[in-house]
Amino acid sequence: MEALTASAKMKQAQDFLPINGTDYIELYVGNAKQAAHFYKTAFGFQNLAYAGPETGVRDVASYVLQQGKIRLVLTTPLKSTNPISEHIYKHGDGVKVLALWVDDAYKSFEETTKRGAKVYMEPKTITDENGEVRMSGIYTYGETVHMFVERKNYKGIFLPGYQPMTSDYNPTPTGLLHVDHCVGNVGWNRMNPTVKWYEDVMGFVNILSFDDKQINTEYSALMSKVMSNGNGYVKFPINEPAEGKKKSQIEEYLEFYEGEGVQHVAIATHDIIKTVRELKARGVEFLSAPPNAYYEDLLNRVGKIDEDLAPLQELGILVDCDEEGYLLQIFTKPLEDRPTLFFEIIQRKGAQSFGAGNFKALFESIEREQAKRGNL
Ligand code: FE2
């Protein structure tokens, strides 16, 4: 075991880049109107705001959905000449922006670019009748970017240019609260340079590491390091494939996303049994449950838990523990036809880790899906 807990390691992070949390996650999608319907119907997100031709934006349409503290922005280009079209042509639907809520977007840009960050958007101040938002952006892995959003002088619904959006169709929320972590998949020998980038450029610390001896199945393996900012409000695990007998899920992702990118977004709930039951009823597809032996052995592995085993087994919810407590988690199948982005639903009961004890059961489940796609 590590000498320091994950919580203790976070305190070692540098504070030249204070971050208050995830501001929004923007996906580039082929059809934002239909994607918004899916995330509303299946996951219970609510309409918040919209920007598009009706609001004076000529080249894209963006739907902003909200649930708890999570804001999803779904953006689609309206013409092939828009660079977003090229992004979607290459990567398919996926996460473009992991936006971070900061107190000073200009200083965040200056501090990170001074340390080597590649510029995505020079700092700018955008205004409307509701005040001003200051924004800037840098590239992280692949074509993914971090935007810095400073909104202390803004009273509007989302960002200048967006108008409030309401709908007569409002499926109830499913208990999704906030973004717990966002995982990136990077290429061969790219995990350590990416980890170093988060340390040097963002002042993050590596709070947990897993090597291919810990994360492997009969067929494939991967390595993972978890990066966190100081207050632990944003955590970015970074995965890299490792040599195995067959193709790993990370390689499959890299092949179909055609590059590095966001593998999964983990969303917190206070009641995972209720949330997952509801999501399944709405048609969200999850990875298949592990074998019965997983549940027979569960209490020996993690100790006493508050939940009954029967609903966990029925729904295929996984449980893991660390020295600070335990966590419950489950993973959706990919959210689009390419085997790329998926969601994790997670409920933490003290544990600050990421379910390493579940990796084997989980990856065997993923491999069954990969095999069905002919990609194993
Ligand atoms: Fe995760």
Describe the secondary structure blueprint for this structure.
Elements: H1 6-10, E1 21-28, H2 32-43, E2 46-51, E3 60-67, E4 70-77, H3 83-91, E5 94-101, H4 105-114, E6 119-128, E7 131-139, E8 145-150, E9 163-164, E10 178-185, H5 191-202, E11 205-210, E12 221-228, E13 235-242, H6 249-257, E14 261-268, H7 272-281, H8 292-296, H9 298-302, H10 309-315, E15 318-322, E16 325-331, E17 342-349, H11 359-373
Parallel strand pairs: 1-4, 5-8, 10-13, 14-17
Antiparallel strand pairs: 1-5, 2-3, 2-9, 3-4, 6-7, 7-8, 10-14, 11-12, 12-13, 15-16, 16-17
What can you see in these coordinates?
The chain has 376 residues and is α+β, with helices and mostly antiparallel strands. The protein has 2 domains: 19-164, 2,3-Dihydroxybiphenyl 1,2-Dioxygenase, domain 1; 176-373, 2,3-Dihydroxybiphenyl 1,2-Dioxygenase, domain 1 (Roll). 26% of the residues lie in helices and 33% in strands. It has helices at 6-10, 32-43, 83-91, 105-114, 191-202, 249-257, 272-281, 292-296, 298-302, 309-315, 359-373; strands at residues 21-28, 46-51, 60-67, 70-77, 94-101, 119-128, 131-139, 145-150, 163-164, 178-185, 205-210, 221-228, 235-242, 261-268, 318-322, 325-331, 342-349. The strands form 2 sheets. It has a 9-stranded mixed sheet with strand order 6-7-8-5-1-4-3-2-9. It has an 8-stranded mixed sheet with strand order 11-12-13-10-14-17-16-15. The longest helix has 15 residues, at 359-373. The protein starts with 5 loop residues before the first helix and ends with a helix. The structure holds fe (ii) ion.
